[in-house]
Amino acid sequence: MSLRTLLFFLRADRPAPKGGQARGLLLLISLLLFSPRSALAQANEPQPTILHLSQTAERKVVRDLLRIELRVEEAGADPLTLQTAVNRRMAASLDRARQVQGVMVETGTYSVDQEQPQNAPSHWRASQSLILSGKAADALLKLAGALQSDGLLMSSMTYEASPETVRGAEEDLTAEALAGLAERAASIADHVHLSVLRYRDLRVGNAEIGSPPMPRFAAMAMTTPVAQPGQATIRLTISADLQLGAPNR
């Protein structure tokens, strides 16, 4: 039975086939749809060319957030006595730090450990860290110097880019990365005599700091420390799958 005959049976004004005639009609439809000629035609259809591409945009910004970590530390034979001394000194340090405007104050790790030197009697060491952070660098450094004068020890001092600075660069970096990706995709397509038809998939990352902050130590003694912020690199990466095809004539 030919396709013309099949269409004759499917005319709207003819009664619906019944029984074996209906089964035969379904078999015929299957043969026509899945004939070798139909499968060959589908196999000969050109497969789309997919371009996998990523583009990164970056910007240097001044590290604007200073983070200083100091610690109260006591050593001796009685751990309870040491903890009492650490608690008292930390309470006094917190009171002093809270009086400085523009400085965020928090406590960090608290530890009490027994140390057993090889050629000396065992003893205990108790410590607790105090973390200061903020954009008011001068006030922070002055406070750190005062706390060192009170006997606190410097653990670390780093500059980093604040979350506000990173978010502020995100929109511009996104636009820059998108423009760069589109330009690069068009250039690649042109080199292989195709054109960009559409974006099949697009993944946009978040702005991130490209490298960890570098510590900037200038003093460990009981004087006001000195620090230089330096720069951070903020990066944002976009990746996409693009379908390429014959250019429009």
Structural write-up:
This protein is of the alpha+beta class. It folds into three domains: 3-43, no CATH class; 49-61 and 164-245, 2-Layer Sandwich (Translation Initiation Factor IF3); 66-160, Alpha-Beta Plaits (2-Layer Sandwich), CATH 3.30.70.360. Helices cover 37% and strands 34% of the residues. It contains six helices and eight strands, in the order αααββαββαβαβββ. The strands form two sheets. Strands 1, 6, 7 and 8 form a four-stranded antiparallel beta sheet that branches. Strands 3-4-2-5 form a four-stranded antiparallel beta sheet. A hairpin with a 7-residue loop joins β3 and β4. The longest helix is centred in the last third of the chain and has 29 residues, at 163-191. Mean pLDDT is 84; it is low at 6-10 and 216-221.
Following the backbone from N to C, one meets helices and strands in this order, namely: HHHEEHEEHEHEEE
Radius of gyration: 36 Å
Helix content: 25-40%
Low-confidence stretches: 6-10, 216-221
CATH topology of the largest domain: Translation Initiation Factor IF3
Beta-strand content bin: 25-35%
Q: What is the class of the largest domain in the CATH system?
A: Alpha Beta
Distance between the termini: 42 Å
Oligomer: single chain
Please work out how many helical segments DSSP would assign. Answer: 6
Apparent shape: elongated
Number of strands: 8
Give the structural class. alpha+beta
The CATH homologous superfamily of the largest domain is termed Protein of unknown function (DUF541), domain 1
Known CATH architecture of the largest domain:
2-Layer Sandwich
Residue-averaged pLDDT, rounded?
84
- Domain module tally: 3
Largest sheet data: 4 strands, antiparallel
